[in-house]
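Q&A log
Question type: sequence-to-structure
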Amino acid sequence: MCASVTFIAIVDGAITTVALPSIAGQFRLTTAALDGVVVVYPVCLAMAIPASAWLVERFGGKRVLLTALAAFLGSSLLCGAAADLTQLVAFRAVQGLSAGVLFPASAALLFATFNSSEQVRISRYMIIPQQMAPAAAPVLGGLLVDHLSWRWVFYVNLPVGIPVVLFGVVFLAEHRGRPPGRFDLTGLLLTAAGLGAAMFGISEGPNRGWSSVAVVTALVLGAVLLAAAVVFELRTAEPLLKLRLFADRLFRDTNLINLVGLVPILGAMYLGPLFLQQAQGRTAVESGTSTFPEAFGVLLTVQIAGVLYARVGPRIIVGCGLAGVSAVLLLFATCDEDTGLWTFRAYMFLLGVAMGGVFMPTTVASLANIARQDLAQASTLNTVVRQTGGALAPAAVTTVLVLSTPAAAVADPPVSAYQHAYLALAVVAAVTSVFAFTLPDAPARAAAGGTTASSRSALRRPRHEKTG
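Response status: OK
Response body:
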């Protein structure tokens, strides 16, 4: 159930870009005029995330997940039937709002159902849709647009999603956390507006220029609102986002690794197709088949990491994974106009092998010290961090490309610009790797080995305090 939800939402976020030229032709617009169709999705997704934890606690994970999925499918149908650009953007916004609830709700339900040792095993399967979805989206989108129409990039969600809803209604068990307090409306307004403004600024910065009035205004407004939200939430007895969870070092450090570490990882995934199609002049099909091997590398390493997790701990696995990412990015930095596709594919496979040591261990370890009643809150914060890192990645790549390209050739960056971008991403991965080796992972190893929180507390208690 959760795997299917993840696959649908990730594919939808990535597949729309493929259909933009066809949509532009249908509505007699330029592709640039359709920017809102792409940007509105992550902006609305970010705005909806803060409310997801309260909704799960108030109405239960099953009800929230199925309602959000039904809204997502309904808006997909409306997107496909849109008569003009205004309708398409509006329905795309509803998709984003629904997805903003889907991600943390499915994660909260999943991690509340299984203990830490089981979570390691489950994550080995959950990584499959997470990796296959972004790799399959461009290929699937191209086939749908070429053989049917652009409307099917939205309609395709229905035959996949409707059986998932029916399955969830019949078989999905209900889960509730602790009873929520009053709804924190002020916290929602501050965080939603702040995240939305920041996401807009980050997404539009590479397109409009980081010095443009709209981007600067959005970034400054987002920073001010988020700072106000942090102050307010820390002073509120019943906050919408329980930022006090970051007081736990393991939770804080794993999220920091996710935030910064996602930049080189997703940045490389964003940069690869650009290099192949723009620098080497490859076709979209050649690009898609050349970036796809990354998924196989991830799937291989995740299985190994799942076996080693309780033995060596996430610190070693994540640190080595990020070090591997840095090393492979240095290999990418040697690519030029003459680099063959099979060489590039081999590098992508190696990148996937290294990446597989990062995703699962950080996610599972982040929840090792979190009480079961706080899992919905922790999942929401994890989602905020991952979405922010995901938005920063393409922004960072595009910025390096622009800075490394002469002003007269900004529309056609030279090969050296791509090489500089890979080098910059390698440095970020290396720095994050060093930090990852300081991760305090003893609680995560104990939890994966089946030791309960109460048992760990008893083990840490001075001997004279033990009873019985």
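Response note: The chain is about 80% helix and 0% strand.
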